[in-house]
Amino acid sequence: MRMSLIALFLLAAAGTATVPTLTLRNGVKMPMIATGTYQYNESTAEESVTNALKVGFPMLDTALDYWNSDGVGRAIKAAMAGGMKRDQVFVETKVPGCGNPLENTTRNPFTCYKDTQKNLDLVLSQLALEYVDLVILHFPPFPSFALRSCGLLGNLTSCKMARQQWQAMQEFYKAGKAKSIGVSNYCPSCLACLESEEIQPHVNQIMYHLGSGQNAGAASLVAYDKAHGIATQAYSTLGNTPWGKHASADILHGNLTTAIAKAHNVSTVQVALKWVVKHGIAAVTKSASAAHLASDMDLWSWDLTDDEMTQLDNHKSADSPTYPSYACDNMENYPFLVV
User: Fold this and answer.
1) What are the pLDDT digits (tens) for 229-262?
2) What domain range is 123 assigned to?
3) Is residue 90 part of a domain?
4) Each residue's pLDDT tens digit, 110-130
5) How many domains is the chain partitioned into structurally?
6) Is 335 contained in some domain?
7) Which of 41, 54, 78, 88 is most buried by its number of CB atoms within 10 A?
């Protein structure tokens, strides 16, 4: 049943007052829940962000290579014209990793620094903002996809590219154009490339969702982030079926999530999101529906029991990946393979 407009605003008011934040290493407070725009064209992204802001979503997530930043920017501009203050919404965006032959803005591995500079300014222009709250490198440099590690071959390939991109990111941050900077899909060997840099990543956004069971790869990466002062943010929080890129049926309709949702009078989506944030990991979700977005915000008026968390932690879904990002695999568990 569609929520009434009054109910939406009441729920939004309650949600924004109670959404907790993660304090990043530089003191910036990042909300624990964000609405994403992946797979949306400009008009759908604009509609989704407009609805998210209306129901009080505290954070938005987009990317240069989603090709919808203009639409996101229009939604933000309209909300500000309606009275929303800029500091009432945390805006996150991404720029591509270097050397990807499928990405025409950073295809040349020898111009990573200059291309990243251009992309940072481009996405800020498309959003029509003076600054973003967080910008991250969307992927590690492309050779890491073939090698499944940044460490192999060391400075000859991925590490050198990553440092060049990170130089541009640090300059963007120091210029006040981003309140914080980070990475996405970076595994320990890729993060190690940046250990000598003046500014360390504030956030690492990785694939993380219910159904992976006690996945050592995901658990160890989250632990690595925490040990190095990096906040972890999860994308594909409802699963990411291979090729189809759809939410997991096991999460949406599975026996475990359905039973727990019924016990708390919430949705299976809320159960999956609650499980993520209970682990201290910020979650990105998405919907074009204002009612669904309002429901997604309601994660802190109820709680999972210890027994339910144990069941969810141990739950294994057949359509869940065994890796936490596209550039990781189990070779990260063997230190002698990482230079």
Assistant:
1) 999 999 999 987 655 567 888 999 999 999 999 9
2) 5-317
3) yes
4) 999 999 999 999 999 999 999
5) 1
6) no
7) 54
